[in-house]
Every structure is written in C-alpha cells, then in structure tokens.
From TrEMBL:
Family matches, as SUPFAM superfamilies: Acyl-CoA dehydrogenase C-terminal domain-like (SSF47203), Acyl-CoA dehydrogenase NM domain-like (SSF56645)
Transmembrane segments: none
Transferase as UniProt keyword: no
InterPro entries: Acyl-CoA_Oxase/DH_mid-dom, Acyl-CoA_Oxase/DH_mid-dom_sf, AcylCo_DH-like_C, AcylCo_DH/oxidase_C, AcylCoA_DH/ox_N_sf, AcylCoA_DH/oxidase_NM_dom_sf
UniProt domain Acyl-CoA oxidase/dehydrogenase middle: residue ranges: 131-223
Keyword annotations from UniProtKB, A to Z: FAD, Flavoprotein, Oxidoreductase
This enzyme's EC code(s): 1.-.-.-
One Pfam family named in its UniProt record: Acyl-CoA_dh_1
Residue ranges occupied by any Acyl-CoA dehydrogenase/oxidase C-terminal domain in the UniProt entry: 240-378
Gene Ontology MF terms: oxidoreductase activity
Cofactor(s) needed by this chain: FAD
UniProt similarity note: Belongs to the acyl-CoA dehydrogenase family.
Protein name per its UniProtKB record: Acyl-CoA dehydrogenase family protein
Amino acid sequence: MIELDDRLRVLQRAAREWGEELEELGAELDHDPDGVDRFTDVSAFRYVSRMMIPPEYQDSALHLSGHSFHGDRALERVVAVEALGRGDAGAFLAAPGPSLSGGLVALLGDTAQQKWFFEHFSDEPVWTFLGLTEPDHGSDASAMATTLTPEPGGDRATLTGEKRYVGNASRARLGTVFARTGPGPLGVSAVMVRTGTPGFHASPLPTIGLRGARVCAVRFDGVAVSGDQVLGRHLRASSRGMHAAVRMFNQFRPGVAALALGIAQAAHDYLSQHRSDLGPGGGHALADMEDRLVDTRQLVWRAAADVDHDPARGHLASAAKASAARLAEETTLRALELLGPGARFSHPRPEKLARDARGVEFMEGTTHVQRLNVAQGVVTGRIG
C-alpha cells in the first residue's frame, strides 16, 4: 500500500477545494467552451498552468503550508488531477499551460528551445496543443502522412498534413507536431509550431463529452518551420521521434488514469449524497464502487511512482489507464441506472459525468493499446 506523505496530503486537500470551483465552471463550459477566458484566475488553472514546466523555468513554486509544488513529478500530478477531475474533467482539460507539449519539449528540447518555449508561460495564460493522431491513421507512426519537407538552400522546412482530435488547438498559441521526415521508424520528428503562422488551421469538432477541451481537427497547409523549431536535433536519431512520444505518454498516462478516477469518485460522491433516490441494490453498489476506487487509486499511485523512478517504465501506467477508464465508464453508467428511469434528464451532474467518462477512453491510447503495452511488460518480465 502506498500512503501519501504530509506534503502530498496538503496538495490533495487544496486540490479538492479547487475541484469544487471546477464543478460549476465545467457546467458553464459544457454549454459555452469558448468562454474559458473568463476563468483563467481560478486556483485550479493557476496550478495546472505550472504542470510540466521544469523548475528552472518557473519564476516561483506554488507554496502551501510550508511545502513547494512545481507539478513536475507524476505522483504529485496524479494526486492533484484526481481531485480536479472529481470537480470536472472537461474544465481541467480546458486549462492553459504547457501540457503534453511541455513534456515533449522538456524531453527533446535543447537549452535554447526549452527557454523559448517555457518563457511563454511567465506573464499570461497560454494554451498549447500536441498533434499526433491523424484522421486516417490514428496514432500509427508507421502510417503517418503528415510530412516535414526541407526547403532547398536553407535551414527551413515545410509542414504539410492533418491531425485530428487535438485538444485546445483552436485556442492555442503554440504546440508541437509529429511529422514524417523520412522512411522507417527513425524517420519521424517533432517540431514546435506557432499557431499564428500562415497555413495553420484548427477547427473545433462537435463532441458529446469533455466539451471544455475544445477537441479540434488541425490542418497544416505548408506551415513554415525553421531549423531551431525542430526538436531533438542534438540527440541521436533513436532518441527522437516516436521514442520520445512513448516516454512522454508514459509520464502522462498516470495523470489520465487519475482523471478517470476522479470522474468515478464524483459519481460515487453523487450517489452517496442522493442515497434515498437509489433503486434496489444501491447500498451494495456503493460499497462495491468504494472498493474498486480504493484498489484503482493504489494502482494509479504505484504507476506514477514507477514513472517517476524511470520514465521508460510505462507498463503500469498503461494498466492504470485501462483500469481507471473502465471504472469511470462503468461507475457513471451504473449511477444513472441506480437513479432510475429518466436520470439523464433529472440528474444533470451524473449525466455529464457519464459523457465525460466515455471520452477518457480515447485519451493517450485506447484500452487495446494499453493491453498491448501491459502484455509486453508481462512478456519481458517488467510486470510480475
């Protein structure tokens, strides 16, 4: 059993208060995702905007009860993200900050690139995006069609192609994109992109859940990329491209699992508050949910600690993501069932939780992808 130390318990208590702010905010963003600019001063957004910024690029840490928090460790992040997801997952995903792009730049960027990227977050809220999944090929790197083509006679290249299901792209100022630069598994590179560059287009997609995340389709029509925007040029080819993507997802998957866990916990909380409205078997269902929440939380914490120890060890992170996503979906649907016919109309809170829970399945790889990762961990002996 993993138990939180005093420092992380302080963060957990604070994040639960921040999550309560997000619950009301999430309902508003569900109806008006473009209204997020009105809420950039909420405490949750201020914390999330620090996540994935290396401490050396932060002006100051968050201080609570004598403890400092930078958001740069997976275990710290999952403790906070569960509490924020318990408030509202869509609102959490709508927060500004470096997010996935920040993790990638921290992994691949040289000193100058990291300084350029992270200094954007020092003065005002800035949204970012990461482009990997494609409309016809998913996240299959071998079939990636987006290309980065060098221009003759200079240190410049042209980015052409499409990405799909990209969070926050329509409100982002900058982001990172994976593109093919040559054949084979080593022929993939990541580049930093300014969304104001001619040829960049982002269009919001209609979604049933997680509407605050502003999931988009993105098109690159000959976007100019300078040499200093290409990440990992100082590293050997085997450490760039999709290898970096795998390590980045290893770091973030425990957080996605924590987000799903927060959704499931919110459904349990709602049922506990409306126990008198539950149908037959409600008490037993609540007890079963509580047991599964405790077990899954331990798996999520263990996965985060594993990634903090070694970012290459992502097998438990995949197990945690698959388990928590399943728990979120089953718990929210069970909540609506227990609340009786018409619950989707008479209980808007669990109805929204059910919609958001389904969206988590498609974040950071579906359950099928996670099972393949876990199987590889078992075969190689990395998971007992």
